[in-house]
Amino acid sequence: MKVREVHPAAWWLWSLGLALLASRTTNMLLVALILAMTTFVALSCRRPSPWSSAYLVFVKIGIAAVVLRVTLTALAGAPIGTHVLVTLPQAHLPHVFAGTRIGGPITAEELALSAEEGVRLLAMLACVGVANVVTTPSRLVKSMPAALYEAGLAVTVAVSIAPQTVAQLRRVRAARRLRGRPTRGLAGVRGLGVPVLEGALASSLALAAAMDSRGYGRRVPVRRGRRVIASTAALGGIVVVGAGTYGITGGGPRWFGWPLLSAGAVLLVTGLLLGGARSPRTRYRADRWDVRASALAALGVLAVIATTASDGDPLLTPGDPLAVPNLPWLPAAAVLVAALAAFLDPAPRRAKPTADPPVGSAPLRAAA
Amino acid sequence: MIRLDAVTVTLPGRAEPVLRNIDLHVPEGELCLVVGRTGTGKTTLLRCVSAHMPHITGGVLAGHVSVGGRDTRDHPPRELADLVGVVGQDAVATFVTDRVEDELAYAMESLGVAPDTMRRRVEETLDLLGLADVRDRALLSLSAGQQQRVAIGAVLTAHPRVLVLDEPTSALDPPAAEEVLAVLTRLVHDLGLTVLMAEHRLERVVQYADRVAHLDEDGRITAGDPATVLEHASVAPPVVSLARIAGWSPPPLSVRDARRIAGPLRERLATSPAVTRTPSAFGDVLAHVRRASVVRDDVTALRDVELTVRRGEVVALMGRNGAGKSTLLETLAGLLTPTRGSVTVAGATPHKLTSRNLVRTVGLVPQEPGDLLYAATVAAECATADTETGLDAGATAAALDRLLPGLLTTRADVHPRDLSEGQRLALALAVVLAGRPPLVLLDEPTRGLDYPAKARLAQWLDELAADGHGIVLATHDVELAAECAHRTVVLADGEVVADGPSREIVTASPAFAPQVAKILAPGPWLTVADVEAALEAAS
Question: Which terminus of chain A, N or C, has less C-beta within 10 A?
């Protein structure tokens, strides 16, 4: 008996909560803890899907960011602190570039500071990476309100076109080589864009035709009045939410921020619900919000609470003077508890993925 | 169920209509096969029925098309989604989701089918198509045969009453094609589905058809009983061509029917001397693959492959989808670097050659022939190819005219993208063959080509071989392999599992045997041309 998968929205709440925690801290110990936890969860929960290697990709991007950051700081950063590690020969720049420096002394403090900033980004990416390996974007789209479904699907399809475009690029380059055209250097890049774009466009059109034939965009007739109300509510909602956000972020008088934001949200939701009635869609094996989903979301909320409760000193460690930071107990506990996610929605135990069944597989032959 | 009344279709930018005054009626529960030469408007006809014409593709449609009583004029494809299922040539291009189960459910979700019903139908379809083992798998990780079955399943779950299929088996190896066709026949017989299908490889499908609609070059249609229509059609599977020679009328459509009346022919042939087309000796070694392994996207696509191609030799590569045929060709063409082992072509290492030198050594027509084309019109493409390869002006145009006579005069200003599948392939073949590279590599060179064009290609390959060129073709088309390959190499799972004279390899397995060989077994004849030559020698 297969265990149902936990609602994808719960996973996104979990990972965004932790990403928020990661974004607020420069404490290396805490960040290391977050990375260890996300790796554990990603490994124990990942599902076989085209996205299953996303965690690794996210982490690789993060590591590249850290390396780039530290290198740039070492070469051209402002020296802070007193612990000089090496002194590089310094380039003498013209007067116009006053304030910029290339080469010169590299201090432990400046490296530590830039590494902390970089590793924070790495941790945030790792948190989002977990959500990507456990639930695919298409599962999240499935749980969207009907009125947003079609737009959401268009976005996921566009995202999944990216790997196809890379494949297309490879094919066009190969074809150029076969026709005796240069493939290296500037000459090789020139004239590559049009065939690749053309190919992407052609496949989008083919997909659009296929989706149309399978009922994408079918409408059930709805009274005109109701349609007008739905669009007015949705549009009005967006405007009011915008005004409310403006109030909260401090653009205008404070008092109208929260009330406007809530009123706008209500309008928006009403608009979406009314608009959704035009689409006849149903959902195949829709994800259900169960106790495990609530628990998972709670873990994410816990991380947010821990962040707000201990905002400030314990989360931020100054790079100068150098010191081993203390581990703030509340956020650390939140991160450790978040690892429970691995037990809430573990990957189904399965044997090694089987190879393709031999041609003319038994059930078909039997049925025929 | 499907009714076309006085339908005339004109495509944008063309003076002459593609389809002229078509009347066609396909009653419920019939499998109707649309046949015709390359570029005669088979795909356009199917698009009229699926309402893509004129709602999605441009063009002017006169007359009436109705499916299940709904006029396509007022019903865009999405309004026919519950009635018509459309399956294209390229399954991957039509996938909306990324998992087998979700793909099967997608059409039902759009139609608003109740969740319980959806669940039941998905389970039924998984069983019907033998996909239960792969229900959780990512679509892109499946084999081509499985992908094509998913594409069919994805439209079946919506319980359409009509299926429209455009070359559903053209990308499949013979066993996978049989599997898909077996499913289709069962749907027609058990569920009373009406099927409209276009296909070039008639030998695979014609015995399942209840009705054949033949489109001629003026865009007119003749529809009726398969044997009657095919007896005089411009395209005919080998079994019908054999019937024309042997004087069988009406022609048999399946190997079984042909064998039952082939007794006298076999007796006549028994007295004739055996024909051998294989030259007694070939030239020196032109291409040599030594214990090459290729790892592609973390998968070992080739493992310790050993292959030699001599001058004057035509080698066919066969094997199921994903066996490594294309990888081997791309390695020979210098597009892939072997992870282990070595490759030499005409004394050089192909992947180290500059593209300028490569094009003088190896020519490859890839599986997607369109990749090879850049120019904005057919005429410009031919001119570019001449200058790039350093040929006399008009050489490529002449080559194209040889493969598909008349294409250049009627469609010179058309964008290659707007050509039919077979026409585009012919253009790519012309671009490569006109340059006469010493080693010619062709990846699936018959998709969308009709029988006369295939025969012209085979004859040209014969001539090139006689001039000392080496030719390797990867194909699922057993008839082509039988017609022009001297040697056949079978790949499985990236390894060479058989390598020997075509005659022996091809007759050894029923999956790879051409129709004539099956009909005249145990005689040594493989193609209609063999039989013709033998009869001449006997008389």
Answer: N
